[in-house]
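Work package 3, deliverable 3.1, input record:
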Amino acid sequence: MKNLPRLLMVVAALGLLSLFIFPMWRITLLAPQYPDGVTMYIYINKLGGESSGTLQNVNILNHYVGMKKIDPDAIPELSYFPYIVIGLVVLGLGAAWSNNPRLFLAWGVLMVLVSMVGLYDFYLWEYDYGHNLSDTAPIKIEGQSYQPPLIGSAKILNFIAVSMPHTSGWLAGICILLSFVAAWVSFKKKKNESTEKYKLDTVPNLVD
Amino acid sequence: MKNHRILFNLALLLTSGLIFLSGCGDPSGSSGGSAGLLADNAASQVYVPPGEYDEFYGFFSGGFSGQLSVYGLPSGRLFKVIPVFSLDGEKGYGFNEETKPLLNTSHGFVPWDDAHHPELSQTGGTTDGRWIFINGNNTPRVARIDLTTFETAEIIEIPNSGGNHSSPFTTENSEYVVAGTRFGVPYPQKDVAINSYAENFRAMQTFISVDPENGEMDIAFQVLLPAFDFDLSHSGKGKSHGWTFFTSYNTENKHSLLEVAASQNDKDFIAAINWKKAEEYIKEGKFHEVPANYAHNVYNEKTHTATSTMKDKVKVLIPSECPGLVYFLPTPKSPHGVDVDPSGEYIVGNGKLSADLTVHSFSKMLKAIENKAFDAEIEGIPVLKFEEVVAGVVKEPGLGPLHTEFDGKGNAYTTFFISSEIVKWKLGTWEVVDRVPCYYSVGHLMIPGGDSKTPEGKYMVALNKITKDRYLPTGPEVCHSAQLYDISGEKMKLLLDFPTIGEPHYAQGIPADRIQSKSKKFYPIEENEHPYRAMGEKDARVERSGNIVHVYMTTIRSHFAPDNIEGIKVGDKVYFHVTNLEQDYDVPHGFAVMGANNAELLVMPGQTETFLWEPKKEGVFPFYCTDFCSALHQEMQGYIRVSNQNSNIALKWGLGEDETIQ
Ligand SMILES: [Cu+2]
């Protein structure tokens, strides 16, 4: 039990590696003729879908309204974000090694900041895809944007677009929580330890 | 589903009540009302609400349409018509370069046949939903249809045969599907006087092995029998696994006016062939390897192309040299179907000109063989004593029995063509327990799994030859029909009748879940190994060598690449190899060119298909997508320019104004 905060911090840091295994976000397009929906998964380092053809299918749908082709090679974040995640894992492990609750807290706050930057970046991409439309689009609707929601659902023409964190997105959130819990338990423990020290110091005196 | 049913029943009750109330207020209407309720009850039993699925797949042969149609049961909704021994302009089947080899035979390209009996593959005596086989009667062939794609995957020609009717019934684990011959033919085939029939003609029974991994067929061996007309067959199951039974008529050995000449003998034969014994004889080398010439055609799902290979020999077993291989069971009179009950003990000989229905016992047959209870011998084949093999007789059940299936609950159901009815009787006691009329002249019947070890005794389908006044008339030619009965209770109950494609001789049914989840949605493009594929628009191009032009074309919503082609000349042979780049469910693209002496292509996602076009005139000809694929489908079109033979216009192709692919 003594090592609990430290352990939590290790779990929080290593838990980030799930970003390399599971998608962190998903966008699902729903329409009557797509009974199962068209679901795109966003990983830390790639874009995927329910089948090998999903990205192509999304691009086919998008091209009617002149949206740009979603090309993973044209999204630099997919190639450098993994390094940021690895850096965060290393920092987290370092904080765990130091066993300093202040560093646990600092890591958690850093994670929140990085997540916010990431979400803002995601929003910018969504904005770009949704607004930056080709002049020669076959279907043009005055004033219509095709930007999917950052989180939640929205109606876009005949589709309902649902955007939600996915497995590793939720897990990353849990990692942040864990780091705060680790900091909190550790602070509390330190406080208890100091009072206990006092008790330990005084008790023998009483016995005497 | 259940709740929906109940709600629907309630709704029907209410509406029928309302109609009754508002109808007339005449109390005599109540009888009409109750008849209406009965009909409503049947309606609710076959009603599958929109968006819900049928409980069973039904596969109905198309007979002289050469096709196999796929229905849902109990709704009777038609899902697909699979071309097998036919040309199908809709799918380009038999027209495109990839499927033409499937219809190759030793007689060349034979684009039609008479497809009678679908038979599902089995594992352990139960239908497994992997493949369905069907015979071509006229130019003897057996086809295998893959039930992940619902497409014809293979066709093998049967040598030394004429009229492949008693086919392609399976053994318990689809070790074999069989092919008997309805017409004796000279063996070996040669120029002889027809009246030398008894001397020169023979009837070869064929055992086609089925590869348990990929379903590929091969002619394992043939058994040479006297030239009787072998009509139908079924393989044993359970205790009789290892045997196959073939009915015969024309044991009179006649070759003219058979309707009289072949109906004289009181008893004809069921030939019982011990195929496990045959395997031993083959292993011992007791076969004759005889020259033959037959086509084996296999469709490859990776290259999306069929290849036809000619084979030149076959192994023949001669019963007189192979004791214990074949026995004849005397059976009255010109038996048509031969059906083995789920236990494998009872062998029903449906003697179509007999007043009674004869049932043989497999265990009595084994005993009779052991005791050598023989009446005679024909070409080295012992004829067993009738009394020693018969298990029982269903007395005067009806007129013209043809086929029997089983419900797995101890009951048998036999069709009677002449008296146009189905009779339900009990195995063992041979008593008739129920009968229902058919509209009209029923041939085969089908219970899902009804010829396997594990029938699903819930529904029964009658396949009728004549409909006359059953539907709105459509000129001299009217449809054949299927009738669906509920057989879950003591009494058979007519639920529905629906028109069918061609002439459904036989059908097979299977619980939907054995197939449904394995059904392919598209072909992964990365697995496409077609030699003329284009894996993306970057690969799209046109190549010429001499007067042969290959167009590597792609489709994706909503354009062809390339869609403008110039430099084609009169007299060229232009092959359009169209690859559908889509990777989504239910997005085929079509392709058609003006003036092509051909059909369209209908290319499934991930597939490549080839279309031959031989332009005969100068000009500019449009081509377009024929399958409404998207909102911009009408824009999915292109042009091909054809110039004079001596012109020096260079090959040129492109897509979009500033995106010339070239
Ligand atoms: Cu199209």
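Residues 36 and 86 of chain A are 35 Å apart (CA to CA).
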